[in-house]
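Dear colleagues,

As part of the handover before I leave the project, I'm documenting each prediction I ran so the next person doesn't have to rerun anything. This entry is a single chain, and its sequence is reproduced below.
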Amino acid sequence: MEPTKGSQSGGTIDKEAANKLIEDLNKAVTDLYEFEENYFTNHPISDAPKKTDHVQEKLNETLSRLKSEFDQLKDFPECEVRAQCYYLLGRALNIHPAFNPEAEEALSKAIKLDPSLVNAWNELGECFWKKNDMEEAKNCFNGALKRSHNKVSLRNLSMISRQEAAKSTKECKEKIDIGVQYAKDALSLDPCDGLSWSVLGNAHLSAFFSIQQNPRTLKQAMSAYYQAEKDPVAQNKSDLHYNKGVALKYEEEYKEALESFERAKNLEPSWELPGLKQEQLLKYLTNTQILVNQHGRLKAKKLASLQNTLDEKSLGPYAGGNFTSASGTSVTLTSIPFSKLKEGVNSEKVILGFVVCSIHDDDSVPFSFCLTDEEKTTIVVTVYNLAQGKGVIIGDTVAIPEPFVTFNDFSFQDKKFQFTSVRIDNPLVMVVNGKKVKKDQLASTQLSVFKVIQ
């Protein structure tokens, strides 16, 4: 076989040798990414602050190897070989979260030399994304997808579709639905891919924030996150645990939410957001516990006065009347004190109390307040899908049919929490001061109160 001449100082290199070099370089870059992805498989969580430096050391070793071999291949006459060389260089440089202009330059050259290089299209798309050039990023992922139906492009397009601005509620829903479908398509190619499961969870979580605060949507997000955690690569991604913590917070699984934020914080100590959200949730829970224990800090005389406002009229249409339950059947409600509540749905029951305080939360959803009954038992009520400024105030009477109850009893760090809460997903079932809540008090499209990390 006639040797093909290259430009390296050692003389000539044939096609077989060039392919062998590309194979070796590909392994070196793959090893680099496996080192980063499996860092906590081989290092204790206490090494998290050292991870960036360790990855940089590994990157420096890889780049030294790449640049050493690059001289033998950069002027190789066959475009495909040179394209692979530039792609591997760009991919290595692209390992860090921050934009790297050298990576963009190398990957752009790879695509010009070989437009069929799907992996290079995807890597270049991520470069543009880091650069906040979403349109070019989208073009790259679509360019890759035209050449090969692959999970990486589909995952990224799922994220981008949810980030694009929408002019209406309908358009917002359409973009999120497209994002969900892209993630499902990615999973159809690899049902065990934890990163795709994580993206699907984020798509459902975006729907919860942007379309409707539906508990079913939260459960879909949680189901996807649990699947993602089965993947050893995905389970060590701090953004997975952060977003899972967000979903758990809104599921009102507070201890698990705090633990997820803690995990995210430990995996990436330099990322401030998980610690901030954990601190905010602890502050909310601590404040809630104090307000429950002290009946909203109302004085005894005020409490006694408000107790006298509770009468049959305060139940409004629920005073001996019928109620259509979630199952669609018509039932007669029986009024019970808070002390008789059971965990879960209290079928065919109605509770009545007076508002003693609202509970401040750094997030605007849900609207939370403390409710006290005639026995002076105080509980927490959380209301979703309620329009801003349409909440109840101190002294209002509130009746809640078939309340969904959670008995919170847990400790985290040095704090103990023990209180009963009632969750309301549809404000229209509430009776305030003897009257049903009206439709104009419902929220329209919800804005994200938590940032979903893509």
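The chain has a mean pLDDT of 91. The first strand starts at residue 322 and ends at 324.

All the best with the project,
I.
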